[in-house]
Write a structure and sequence with these properties.
Layout lengths: L4 H14 L8 E7 L8 H5 L3 E9 H4 E3 L2 E2 L2 H12 L3 E7 L1 E2 L9 H5 L7 E8 L2 E12 L4 H18 L5 E4 L19 H18 L4 E5 L7 H14 L2 E5 L6 H5 L1 H8 L5 E5 L17 H11 L4 E5 L4 H11 L3
Parallel strand pairs: 1-2, 1-13, 2-5, 5-9, 9-10, 10-11, 11-12, 12-13
Antiparallel strand pairs: 3-4, 6-8, 7-8
Helix pairs in contact: 1-11, 6-7, 7-8, 8-10
Length: about 325
């Protein structure tokens, strides 16, 4: 999307207004994803301003067979982090960004009642829904049979880890099925998908009443009105909100999730994930990438989030993020 001059000026003004915000209240975590060895890194462990790690666990690895839950990785990661005075924030992943990896348990793919368990997401150029490639997969969140199984997973996780982990988040609400309906999976409607997201949040909160329960909500099929309904329900349920990508200079984010995250601040916990590519996003006023202090100012001053999850993309993580956090009192 092109950044028009007027939009660019507005965004620069927003970032400028965010400057000077009190960043002391923010909880800094490092997002290691599935690179669990990263939690043993001495620099991570020795940086006091970093409260803990955010790790990703896929539905497939947590449920090896029907009701065959395997939480050993979470137990080991939690025990190690606690032994070092750090906390664990987990992300449950039911979507992938690889055509080769389907993130749901195999039984969902094989038993007819689950209709394959997951559906393809697509790379779509412009409005061309005829010539697409597979981007990845997403669980059939809108399918009642699949959703019931996902709820059982969340409740099992809650019985074992609620109150022990800092928090748990569900992945982004955005899915890539196009807009015309040509690529919509079987049974998918805008309303069914919205309702499924709302129900998942309610179950997540019931499973984790003590730990932070958070939904990443960035975009929704059907547009902003559907996204607003997610944030409204999250506030009612006291479910945290957040999303991937800290991109201060992007109008599309400013027109969708960012104002909604800001409105939720102080009502429910909120967070933002700094992901690969974010460190290189350029300030249109300077032509230079946003600095780490600018990113923190935007996250805490404009978005007013409580949690920032920093990715480990190099050289930015080692050369810029860590020194800044180490300098904090």
């Amino acid at each position: 999307m092109k950044l028009h001059a007027q939009s660019a000026c507005c965004l620069v003004a927003v970032l400028t207004c965010a400057a000077g915000a009190n960043a002391a209240a923010v909880h800094h975590y490092v997002f290691f994803g599935q690179d669990r060895e990263g939690i043993t890194n001495a620099t991570f462990l020795g940086t006091k301003a970093i409260e803990g790690a955010q790790l990703k666990y896929t539905w497939r690895e947590l449920e090896r067979g029907k009701d065959g839950y395997e939480f050993g990785d979470i137990e080991r990661d939690l025990a190690f982090l606690q032994s070092k005075g750090k906390k664990l924030f987990i992300q449950i992943q039911d979507a992938s960004f690889s055509p080769q990896f389907v993130p749901v348990p195999r039984y969902l793919m094989n038993e007819p009642e689950f209709h394959g368990g997951a559906d393809k997401q697509y790379n779509i150029t412009g409005d061309d829904e005829e010539h697409v490639t597979t981007q990845g997969w997403v669980a059939r969140r809108w399918d009642p049979a699949v959703q019931e199984r996902f709820h059982k997973l969340l409740l099992a996780l809650g019985r074992q880890f609620d109150g022990k982990i800092e928090g748990i988040n569900l992945p982004e609400t955005a899915v890539d099925f196009g807009e015309t309906g040509k690529l919509f999976p079987k049974g998918f409607t805008l309303e069914a998908y919205r309702d499924a997201v709302l129900t998942n949040m309610a179950v997540l909160k019931s499973a984790f009443p003590r730990s932070v329960a958070m939904q990443y909500a960035n975009f929704m099929p059907g547009g902003r009105a559907y996204l607003q309904s997610v944030f409204k329900r999250a506030r009612e349920l006291k479910v945290g909100v957040g999303g991937p990508d800290l991109l201060p200079f992007r109008p599309f984010q400013m027109q969708n999730s960012y104002p909604l995250i800001r409105e939720s601040a102080g009502v429910v916990p909120s967070g933002i994930a700094v992901q690969d590519g974010n460190y290189e996003d350029r300030n249109p006023a300077t032509g230079q990438p946003a600095t780490i202090p600018e990113l923190i100012e935007f996250a805490t001053g404009f978005l007013r989030v409580r949690y920032v999850f920093w990715c480990t993309e190099e050289p930015f993580y080692s050369k810029q993020v860590i020194p800044l956090l180490q300098a904090q009192p």
